[in-house]
Sequence to fold (197 residues):
Amino acid sequence: RTFGPPATLYRYRDAVGQELGAVARYEFVKDGKRGKSFLPITWGSEDGGKTWDWKCGAWNLPRPLYGLDHLATRPKAPVLVVEGEKAADAARRLLPAFVTVTWPGGSKAVSCIDWTPLTGRDVTLWPDADAPGIRAMDELRALLEGMATRVRWLDVSGQPETWDVADAVAEGWTRARVVAWARGRVRCAGDVTGERA
Fold:
């Protein structure tokens, strides 16, 4: 009610397409500055599974990935992990060769997510161009070691603060431009500043 209707509603689905919940994105202006806020709307149980209901609040742990349905329908496709649903939707349009996923809760929630659907997958991490985003993807890299068949990292240094794939789309980047930019920035995830993969 504070912000009015959500600007976007991102629907989370399981591997067979059944809705697990959604994240509502609100955009607003306060004191002359643009802001955003997120509200999860989830299906879950607060009494150990005796009763289930929709609620405003985060999922029970571990939380699901945004894109489980896409992973299930394309089991051999490489995976791109980005931070945020807006970035995931932008990457899906721009880089259709990948299955793009993200997670709810932002950079501090990496450890709250069920990452096992990425077992055996070839994964590339695209962090936001800021310290929290890079820390989140580094934490994820550690979690995926021994789970994914390969984990790589895109070096986003030199980009504006908080820049991500959604910003690239807003700036008019084409698929060819993103691929050319990324080709020179792919790193082995274990060595963020080291050799190219």
Summary: The beta strands are 8-13, 19-30, 33-44, 53-56, 79-82, 99-101, 122-126, 150-154, 186-188. Helices lie at 68-73, 85-94, 131-144, 165-170, 175-183. The mean pLDDT is 92.
